[in-house]
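JOB MANIFEST
job_type = single_chain_structure
chain_count = 1
residues = 138
[input]
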Amino acid sequence: MSDRRQQWKIALSLAALVTVSAGIGAVLGHRIARQQIDARNDPENWNDYVSREFERLIRPSPEQRPKVKSHLDNAVRQLQAIRIETVQRSTNVIWRLVADVERELTPEQRKAFEALKPQPSDLNLDVLNVTPADAPKP
């Protein structure tokens, strides 16, 4: 009987260890993935990453470096503008959808719909780590 009880204790201890390890691994993995996604989505990092990779793979001459950097800077500014415009246009589509759907609902349904509606703070440029081009620089 004592052996049986000891086997159960060992099995439960191992199961607990596996569960805790999996939980910690999931939390750490999520955190690391989130940091990588945030870094990749930060426009400030776009130019740095491309510059490092270009330098590593192409090895431009000293005369080519400033010219290539100028092209990269210009492209990043254009990509940022496209990204901002896309988010603004997408946000407009979402708000039009919300307004169209609300017009179709009864007062009771509208109350329930309030829980589903995005909040204005959910749909802004802050999530992209960018500011509009015409905004003052900090």
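[summary]
The radius of gyration is 26 Å.
The mean pLDDT is 85.
exit_status = 0
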